[in-house]
């Protein structure tokens, strides 16, 4: 064991000597490994950070949440011309389904509408994502408050002029002053601020709650009516835990078809979108991104492997005389083999560490510049180091074998 530790120490010294004696040549040889490790770990770190952000943003939503709407969240066999004829979901359908559905924890109604400006005294915030929803959404979306509250059932049903502001909207309008109870202007009318949401951070799918404002859905219905084609309505179902999703979707379909008067031969004129299907789609995209990163990066690692092999063949040639002396003093072939293998691995790992340092620096810069946390996890660091070691091992096999098979007499004579 002590012999191999000494061997490892000597190999490390030889690797450092190779770096010192010809820095440019060695660094150019290691460049392929550096770029390959950088590419793979950068892609994996970015995808892992994206996955973590998605999981955080969607953690408040149950994967079994169902969206009843005239659009499909994913690919569909229904032709476009037919989808365009689908009617909007109506408020009376929401009230009917609320009373008719079984095994339902919460059921809410939302209208997608255009963006607006919100004013307070001389300050104006433009391009605000307005979210008209029913009162149940505090439980469906798991909204968390920095201060204040969400509107109640009475305020929601009457279409009261109350508003819940996202964190950034509130700070832009009120700075450090108290927003609760203040009046803001939107839709040309005064709304009373009753709540401010906790800071969420940048959103990946459309708007973050930080740049949104929640108002009672019935205010928008009173303002625009129920037949406005510029609005898109959705009924959101949160089924009880453990419910059979197939049976639950069938119940939604059966009851809405009956309410709309669809006959047995008529096809559905609505879509039942399960949130888990959307998350599965996202997981598939993330998996493809990882696969693409691996494919691209493996070419760089292949080039890096040739670079390591090249520098090791040069090292064998430069140290032929030393190899002959070692063998004449009793060094076995296995000792010479491991010496060069360890050296190749150490050189490759040095190149990999440089690549990891580049990823770490870029992650720090992007995290500070963008509202997005790039994380270089310990798992990716270990993976990068392991990959570099494997590349070094594979690349060093042929040079190490050639060194171990040298005849000691011929090796000493060659070096003279």
UniProtKB/TrEMBL annotation:
Residue ranges of every copy of the MacB-like periplasmic core domain listed in the record: 26-254
Pfam families per the UniProt record, alphabetical: FtsX, MacB_PCD
A cellular-component GO term for this protein: plasma membrane
GO molecular function, one term: transmembrane transporter activity
Mode of membrane association: Multi-pass membrane protein
Keyword Transmembrane annotated: yes
Membrane-spanning residues: 27-47, 293-314, 335-362, 374-398
Coiled coil: none
Signal peptide (UniProt feature, chain positions): none
Domain named ABC3 transporter permease C-terminal: residues: 295-408
Name the record gives this protein: ABC transport system permease protein
Species this protein is from: Flavobacterium frigoris (strain PS1)
């Amino acid at each position: 064991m002590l012999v191999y530790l000494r061997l490892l120490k000597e190999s490390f010294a030889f690797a450092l000597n190779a770096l010192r004696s010809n820095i440019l040549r060695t660094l150019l040889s290691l460049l392929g490994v550096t770029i390959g490790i950088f590419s793979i770990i950068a892609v994996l770190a970015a995808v892992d950070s994206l996955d973590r952000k998605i999981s955080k943003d969607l953690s408040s939503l149950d994967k079994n949440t169902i969206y009843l709407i005239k659009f499909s969240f994913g690919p569909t066999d229904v032709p476009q011309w037919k989808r365009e004829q689908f009617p909007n979901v109506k408020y009376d359908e929401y009230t009917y389904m609320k009373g008719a559905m079984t095994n339902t924890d919460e059921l809410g109604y939302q209208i997608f509408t255009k963006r607006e400006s919100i004013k307070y005294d001389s300050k104006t915030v433009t391009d605000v994502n307005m979210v008209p929803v029913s009162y149940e959404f505090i439980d469906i979306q798991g909204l968390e408050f920095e201060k204040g509250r969400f509107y109640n059932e009475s305020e929601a049903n009457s279409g009261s002029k109350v508003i819940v502001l996202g964190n950034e909207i509130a700070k832009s309008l009120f700075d450090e002053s108290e927003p609760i109870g203040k009046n803001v202007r939107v839709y040309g009318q005064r709304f009373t601020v009753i709540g401010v949401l906790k800071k969420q951070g940048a959103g990946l799918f459309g708007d973050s709650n930080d740049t949104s404002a929640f108002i009672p859905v019935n205010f928008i219905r009173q303002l625009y009516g129920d037949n406005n084609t510029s609005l898109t309505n959705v009924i959101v179902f949160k089924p009880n835990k453990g419910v059979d999703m197939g049976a639950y979707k069938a119940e939604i379909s059966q009851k809405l078809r009956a309410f709309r008067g669809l006959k047995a031969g008529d096809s559905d004129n609505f879509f039942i979108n399960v949130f888990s299907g959307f998350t599965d789609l996202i997981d598939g995209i993330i998996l493809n991104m990882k696969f693409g990163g691996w494919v691209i990066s493996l070419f760089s690692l292949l080039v890096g492997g040739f670079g390591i092999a090249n520098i090791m063949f040069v090292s064998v040639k430069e140290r032929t005389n030393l190899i002959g002396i070692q063998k004449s003093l009793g060094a076995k072939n296995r000792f010479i083999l491991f010496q060069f293998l360890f050296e190749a691995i150490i050189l490759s790992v040095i190149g990999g560490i440089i690549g990891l340092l580049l990823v770490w620096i870029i992650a720090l810069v992007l995290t500070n510049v963008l509202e997005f946390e790039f994380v270089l996890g310990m798992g990716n660091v270990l993976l990068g180091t392991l990959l570099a070691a494997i590349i070094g091992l594979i690349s060093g096999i042929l040079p190490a074998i050639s060194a171990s098979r040298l005849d000691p007499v011929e090796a000493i004579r060659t070096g003279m």
